[in-house]
Design a protein that fits this description.
- The chain is of the alpha+beta class.
- It is built from 7 helices and 15 strands.
- Helix 1 packs antiparallel against helix 2 and helix 5 runs parallel beside helix 6.
- The longest helix is centred in the N-terminal third of the chain and has 27 residues.
- The radius of gyration is 18 Å and the shape is globular.
Length: about 270
């Protein structure tokens, strides 16, 4: 077990290095007049040239440092490795925020174990999420706790243990397709009177980090992909919170994260649709 923890700590160091490097790239080399390079699921689901450049940097560095590992990236990078480790990366989580220069976007890097042919079942064992605007680097590895580093100061993270939904600050997010957003909005309307208040940040990775840091008591969102949640999921768990992933409907998963009591209470309300 000690050897595993040592290996996981090494993977965390690599995740930190890569998240920092890609974060600097997307800020320092952002072109003036950045526009949309492509769209994915809808006209509002955008990709910029910096998403692609960031993912290329991550891929190049992982190929150099961990040539036997696999890779799964949001913008299409995919390599099957032989080591048992698959890196799951989001080169810019919160691309719409990035496009509009709202300071809530991040680079997310996670090392995972499991069958890469079933990415939804990959288990994160180390990861880092970096917001290059605030300078906040969230990081951790399995068995090593969750941490927040800002410049030279590092602190341990502890998730909220709030058990009363009426006192909970709730986070959520919405999909890109109009029909899905309407359904998600209707669900939120059912919940909003039963919680302290609601926050919608626009980056699932940072929302999960906010749960790990106790800035949100509980969070839910449907339709998240592995790269949206892998690093953040690990950090919530290492900070003493829980993450539940359930089938919402075929092809769509519901992610619920927070204190055990709040996740138990919220799960049936957001998954029985």
């Amino acid at each position: 077990m000690a050897d595993d923890l040592t290996d996981f700590a090494t993977l965390e160091t690599i995740a930190r290095d890569l998240a920092l490097a890609a974060g600097r790239l997307i800020v320092d080399e952002r072109p003036v007049g950045l526009g949309v390079a492509a769209t994915k699921s809808s006209a509002t689901d955008v990709v910029t040239e910096m998403d692609r450049r960031s993912e290329q940097l991550l891929q190049d560095e992982l190929t150099r440092r961990r040539p036997d590992d696999g890779l799964l990236g949001e913008e299409g990078a995919s390599t099957v490795g032989t080591s048992g480790i698959t890196w799951v990366v989001d080169p810019i989580d919160g691309t719409v925020n990035y496009l509009y220069q709202l300071p809530a976007y991040a680079v997310s890097v996670a090392a995972c174990t499991g069958d890469p042919s079933q990415p939804e079942l990959l288990e994160p064992v180390a990861g880092a999420v970096y917001n290059p605007i605030t300078g906040e680097l969230f990081h951790g590895h399995r068995g090593g706790g969750a941490h927040l580093s800002i410049r030279e100061v590092t602190q341990s993270l502890r998730a909220s243990q709030e058990g009363d939904l009426s006192l909970a600050l709730l986070g959520t997010g919405f999909g890109y397709e109009a029909q899905i957003r309407r359904r998600q909005g209707a669900l939120l309307a059912e919940l909003i009177g039963d919680v302290r208040d609601v926050r919608r940040g626009g980056s699932a990775a940072l929302d999960l980090c906010s749960v790990a840091a106790g800035r949100l008591d509980v969070y839910y969102e449907s339709g998240l992909n592995p790269w949206d949640r892998a690093a953040g999921q690990l950090l919530v768990q290492e900070a003493g919170g829980v993450v539940r992933i359930e089938d919402e409907q075929p092809g769509r998963l519901m992610v619920i994260a927070g204190s055990p009591a709040l996740v138990d209470e919220l799960a049936p309300r957001v998954t029985t649709r």
